[in-house]
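Continuing the batch. This is chain 6 of the set; chains 1 through 5 are on the previous pages. Same settings as before, nothing changed between runs. Recording input and output for traceability.
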Amino acid sequence: MLFHYRCLAAALLHSMSRRLKRNKNGTPRSYKYENYDISKYIETAEKLGIAVTPLGFGMYELKKGDITRRILSNLSLDQENPVSCRLCCNKYLTYQVLERHGFRCFPKHRLYTFQDVAKTCADFQEWNCPVVIKPCTGTNGGTGVTVNIRSLKELKSAICESFVHDRKGYLMEEFVEGSHFRVVTLRGKFLGCRQRLPARVIGNGKDSIRTLIHDENERRNKDRRDNALHPILVDNEVAHKLRSDHMSMNTIPELGQEICVRDTVNMHMGGEVKAIENVSEAVKRTCADIARILGIYLAGFDIITRDITKPLEETNGVINEVNTSPGMNCMYKLASGGESVRVVETILQDMFEL
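Output for chain 6:
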């Protein structure tokens, strides 16, 4: 009961804190529509001669010839199967379905309710490895996810954080080392791949990490381009990451020293992406098979592996998440090198049979 009240208190404090951070750090954008992704869809549709009509409440109607499609500002497409979308929103259900079809390319995991905290702690000690705690649902933007947990204190704190976003249950997963990638498929066909990089700063030999983050966020806030990066979100995960690396916000990195300040790689928390040209054909086939089994029209696969040019079985890599109607910002916003993959054009051409 005491832990339950602690979770409720954490939920209240979290809500207040996120609202203050959003007001303080939110990057103003000159998007024509609600967000970068929907703007990209609508601007591209207009270039392809597709008429766009705003219907209100974040819904848009797209029409060309005899074909009419509708899209929501959260990128829900009317091509998607609603049952498949609901399935992929639940991480545990997704793992269960894939396991029933013979897939094993996902992390070791276990499902708990918030009455199972003692059981979680016991399993954590039995696993004897770093873990991840995440809500079963509601993890868009990496919300509620805590990674690289190495102590019981961190574990209980992570469960509280998960409770904020999903009060029905949470997953404990084995923490998998490796680089993070996003593979996008359309009807199972490979469209592109990006490596996802965690938020980071570069030392100048004189300023603390706190100052470096502040200056980097100031620079990003002043960047008026549509593909500007989001500010680095500073929260408990940043403190946890720095602690695990024997640093703090007051640490002064050496000149040129790269400091990753988060373990999660989400762009909305300050992460970056870079282009990847060479992807294992086995990885592409695995993603295509999963998209077919789950019945997903447009899919984004979050993959952790040491080498994306090799099959997951050879690198002990995993598919960490399967997302329906994934955001397109990771395919266009590049940190360095490579060119944007014109995936939105491909999607709209398929939707309108162009």
